[in-house]
Design a protein that fits this description.
This protein is an alpha/beta fold. It has 19 helices and 23 strands. The longest helix is centred in the last third of the chain and has 18 residues.
Length: about 575
């Protein structure tokens, strides 16, 4: 079964336009990009022209009569003298589209109403409509009548059958209908066969208001909301397929929004447009205020998926990135000035910190955290390889405890980490799902900007469970993107033959998807050969670093620098140059 709208059918006809025109107007001739014929009667000539190529393929005009301008469906109807509904049925047959539907069980049984004892609108109801700027011509077109002091709205099918009677008290806003009513739409009796676009409103009075301004409209039977309120969609689904555009005009409240969501999802997001009435409650209020209802319809917009954006939405941000270098771009710097023009840890990114066991990657990440705190970043750290106190001991020394461990320093240390550093207080093996739950809460509650997991090996799955590793990294990447934060993940590298060479990105332990998915990857390598030489009393060059930080991936810029670092045992900081002094973060 193929779902078809007029737009779908016209597109299919365009795809085989030469065959269509040969079928409809066999005596025509192709001249350049046009099909030329005498008239709609089909005799040879040049008065009627049909465009055959480009975006306007199928647009036609009979220059002798001034008729035309529509698409291939309009041409089909004009040539064969068919109504639009008849055209749709015949075109489906021509295209070989079988719309036989599976028989679905519907346990709900509806009843058609008995013919009511109704009367013409009384003077009192005439005055009621007049106050609402609805004319006699309009409510007569929709066959609105009166019975025992109540308005009667007849819901009549496109074929002319009475399907539902709905009543409204004139004195008070009270509604009722016949028993077990059919969930159909009000207004079909006024919709002509050639109408291609329709408005769907929340109530009958709004429907009348649109018709008052010459805008074809239908009304839903049970008001806004979701679920059973919109049971009419199933009943009217096939009837509505004839429309290219469906304008949805609900009241601007919560129930109206619920209806908008359900209708566009079920009738097709691509052809449903939301009419925003701005300061007005409903369509009748618009016409009573003397405003132009057609303008609101013309300004209706599709409700695009949240994931669908125009590139121009990001125009200013793109220009900003083009204008400024890395140093001016948003993001957190690394602690070493020599890296500031090459590396930034940006919002919405994920970074991997890898290294051989005991090569100092956790200490180095702690150093990055301290410097990030000084830049105004907020961290939540899941350091499952050591208790919070042990982690804090390392971090406090890097902040500056070793310089003057007194009472003033205690207060300054507290101020430095307070409101800037949170801990996922669990060490050992923790389930990844729990970590993400806590991270999500921390982001929402405290505005955390940086999230650290140390390490992947402590996230609750086996070392060779590559699928779980991939799923976690995938979720971390999504978390960073969705929340505009930065995620840091510490991982191990595979065992090497020795520790004399710097590992690369292909040495990271676990699935290769880890490096593939993240934005940045660093490898921390401790210079064990230098340490061994010093231990054995050999000569060590001043230029030999204690540690190498190797950037093996930086997706944003493609720059992959390698930095030599020197480790200060007293402050536990990594220094950018051998003769540098440790940073003073508090005084």
């Amino acid at each position: 079964m193929i779902e078809t709208t007029p737009r779908d059918l016209n597109n299919r006809l365009q795809a085989r336009i030469e065959g269509v025109l040969s079928y409809l107007l066999p005596d025509g001739k192709q001249r350049g990009g046009e099909w030329m014929v005498g008239s709609l009667a089909g005799e040879p000539g040049k008065s009627l022209s049909v465009r055959m190529i480009g975006g306007k393929a199928g647009v036609w005009s009979d220059f002798a009569t001034g008729v035309g301008g529509g698409d291939l469906l309009d041409l089909w109807g004009a040539v064969k003298g068919l109504t639009f509904v008849e055209v749709l049925a015949e075109v489906k047959g021509y295209l070989g589209i079988d719309e036989d539907r599976p028989k679905l069980i519907n346990r709900k049984k509806y009843k058609k109403p008995e013919k009511p004892d109704i009367h013409k609108v009384s003077q009192g109801l005439f005055e009621w409509f007049k106050k609402r700027k609805i004319s006699k011509e309009t409510y007569s077109l929709l066959r609105v009548a009166e019975q025992n002091g109540a308005m009667v709205f007849p819901y009549i099918s496109p074929g002319g059958e009475l399907e539902l009677l709905k009543y409204r008290s004139i004195v008070e806003k009270k509604f009722w209908s016949n028993q077990d009513p059919i969930p159909c739409l009000f207004g079909w009796q006024a919709v002509e066969d050639n109408v291609r676009d329709i408005v769907i409103t929340e109530g009958e009075i709004d429907c009348l208001s649109f018709w008052e301004k010459g805008i074809p409209a239908l009304s839903i039977p049970k008001g806004a909301g979701s679920g059973e309120k919109q049971s009419w969609i199933s009943y009217e689904y096939d009837r509505l397929k004839r429309f290219d555009k469906i304008y949805i005009c609900m009241d601007g409240d919560k129930s109206g929004e619920e209806a908008n969501i359900e209708i566009i999802e079920r009738l097709g997001r691509d052809r449903c447009l939301i009419v925003d009435l701005h300061i007005y409650k409903d369509a009748n209020e618009v016409i009573c205020a003397g405003d132009d209802l057609q303008i609101f319809v013309d300004n209706a917009r599709t409700r695009d998926p949240e994931e669908l954006c125009q590139l121009s939405d990001f125009h200013d941000e793109i220009l900003k990135e083009l204008q400024f270098g890395i140093a001016d771009a948003p993001g957190m710097r690394l602690p070493w000035s020599k890296s500031h023009e090459e590396v930034k840890l940006r919002p919405s990114e994920t970074t991997v910190w890898a290294g051989i066991n005991s090569h100092g990657k956790s200490v180095l990440v702690s150093n990055v955290i301290v410097d990030g705190l000084s830049q105004g970043e907020k961290f939540c750290v899941a350091s499952m390889e050591m208790p919070a106190v042990s982690f804090g001991n390392e971090l406090y020394r890097q902040v500056g405890w070793c310089h003057s461990p007194g009472s003033v320093m205690k207060d300054n240390l507290f101020d430095f980490v307070d409101n800037g550093l949170w801990i996922f207080n669990s060490y050992g093996t923790s389930k990844a799902v729990k970590i993400l739950e806590v991270f999500d809460y921390a982001r929402k509650r405290y505005g955390i900007t940086q999230f650290v997991i140390d390490s992947l090996a402590k996230c609750g799955f086996d070392e060779d469970d590559y699928n779980s590793q991939k799923m976690l990294v995938d979720r971390l990447v999504d978390f960073a993107l969705e929340n505009n934060v930065h995620v840091h993940l510490v991982v191990h590298v595979r065992k090497q033959a020795n520790e004399d060479s710097i590992p690369g990105k292909f040495d990271v332990k676990g699935t290769g998807a880890i490096i593939d998915m993240v934005s940045n990857s660093f490898v921390v390598w401790r210079n064990k050969p230098k340490e061994m030489t010093a231990k054995e009393g050999g000569h060590v060059k001043d230029s030999d670093p204690d540690t190498v930080l190797n950037c093996v991936k930086q997706r944003k810029t493609g720059v992959e620098p390698m930095y030599n670092l020197w480790f200060d045992k007293h402050s536990r900081q990594y220094l950018g140059h051998r003769d540098d002094m440790p940073k003073q973060y508090i005084f």
